[in-house]
Amino acid sequence: MALSASRREAVLEEWLGLFFIFSAAGWVWEVLLTAITQGQWVNRGMLHGPWLPVYGAGGVAVAALLMRLKSRWAAPLAGALAGGVIEYGTSLLLEWRFRQRWWNYAGWAGNVQGRICLASLAAFALAGWALYGLAPALRRRLARMSPGVRTALCRGISLTYALDWAWSMIWPNGGTGISGPL
To answer: Does the predicted TM-score (pTM) go above 0.70?
Structure first.
């Protein structure tokens, strides 16, 4: 059954909303974790705004996988697998493009070239389990929003996000506690 154009747009906005929610949640997680472990507030990530797209992409990938798997017990595996692949690939791309690292797990148990480690995979597994119930609830909430409000929010956030990307491709967020040279 084909979706109407307006329903396709609504579904796209729901997934885009999830991406931004997960990106912002990841940024909050990283900032709080850094504040607790290092005693300082640091704007984590390559972008300047309050979002980490690696978490957005990982969250959306896991939510999409879980829609197909429909198993609470597959959620941790989906989270670890999707999170690990996306984190490793993102690290490679950032290193290639900017000759910097935004995270380095060298010295952590089970690390692979400092790009992923057992602790990060365990965190992604827990996130996958949490997303099993959370992602569908968030999607339903986004679906119930007024279409005009949802569209305006998606377009406004997308424009801000695109401008941040454009700026960050020239002047990425970096420095002490954020990134380091290879």
So the answer is: yes
Angle at 10 between CA 160 and CA 77, to 5 degrees: 85
Residue with tokens 């729901």: 14
Domain ranges of the chain: 10-158
Cα separation, 92 vs 181, whole angstroms: 13
Spell out where 8-159 has E strands.
100-101
Q: Buried b vs exposed e over 86-110: b needs ≥16 C-beta within 10 Å?
A: bbeebbeebbeebebbbbbbeeeee
Closest among 104, 109, 68, 63 to 87, alpha carbons compared: 104
CA distance 149 to 115: 39
Alpha-carbon distance 93 to 102, whole Å?
Answer: 11
Express each pLDDT in 146-178 by its tens digit: 999 999 999 999 999 999 999 999 999 998 888
pLDDT tens digit sequence for 3-43:
787 889 999 999 999 999 999 999 999 999 999 999 999 99
